[in-house]
């Protein structure tokens, strides 16, 4: 029995890894759990002297050219019908995400996503199951495909695949 316990410990150890694709002074760890305000503080958006309002799920940080994508999967409580976006993991490497309704191919918000291969913008994905859960830092993502307009449905590729335990929780099949 002790051998099994030792083996399980060795097999389930997750190595802490700095969140890739962000400035070195952002103290964030890949696959770690955070409250939204902790992420905003780490990114320099919230400070002792600056506390800007933020309610939406997207936070573009223009100076760094990094946009933080905050996703809540279960939107049954606390979300209006207009923001019932369909967000879910397709595979451990791919995540389906819908932009805000205002994002379209003909405006700056939509172009930031659609032109991300050439415009210098980078994206970091943070996902939680519901409003009572912390966000989990899934790290940098790049656009693989897109369709639609207002909202735009985007398939993102994660630079680092999510662990299988997270994939099960974030998968499109999680409620089946």
UniProtKB/TrEMBL annotation:
Q: Domain DUF3427, which positions?
A: 28-170
What species was this sequence derived from? Massilia arenae
| Pfam families linked | DUF3427
Q: What is this protein called?
A: DUF3427 domain-containing protein
